[in-house]
Amino acid sequence: MIQNLVSRPALTDVTHIKTTITRDNAASWGLFNSVASELGAELTSAPHFDAQAHFDGVHETEHMVTIGPF
After folding, report:
1. Which residues are 63's β-sheet partners?
2. What is the pLDDT of residues 50-68, one digit of tens each?
3. How far apart are CA 5 and CA 38, in angstroms?
4. DSSP reduced 3-state for 56
5. Sign of the CA dihedral running 21, 22, 25, 30
6. Residue whose C-alpha is closest to residue 17's, from 43, 40, 37, 49
7. Do residues 19 and 68 make contact, with C-beta atoms less than 8 angstroms apart?
8. Fewest CB atoms within 10 A around its CB: which of 35, 45, 50, 68?
9. Structurally, how many domains does the chain consist of?
């Protein structure tokens, strides 16, 4: 589905995909690693929404995942 979206003529200027994922979300990591591989693009991640600063400790840190450029 993601590959279909980024291949649409209206999205030709799109060069990156960004999302946030918690470290324990194996399904999402698998999906976005696969998307990066299929697009021939690099996947990077860094802490973005901190568990304590943003969620008062009730939710895990969300990591900003970036795929691109592609």
Report:
1. 21, 47
2. 999 999 999 999 999 999 9
3. 13
4. coil
5. positive
6. 43
7. no
8. 50
9. 1
- Write out the residue range of the structural domain in which residue 56 sits: 2-67
Contact 14, 69 (CB under 8 A): no
Assigned token pair, 6: 């980024």
Q: Which amino acid is at 52?
A: Q
Percent of residues, the chain, with pLDDT higher than 90? 97
User: What CATH number is attached to the domain comprising 19?
Assistant: 3.40.630.30
Output phi, psi for 56, to 5 deg.
50, 30
In degrees, rounded to 5, the angle at the alpha carbon of residue 2 between the alpha carbons of residues 45 and 69 is 50
> At which residue do the structure tokens 């895990």 appear?
60
Measured between alpha carbons, how far is 29 from 55 in angstroms, rounded to an integer? 21
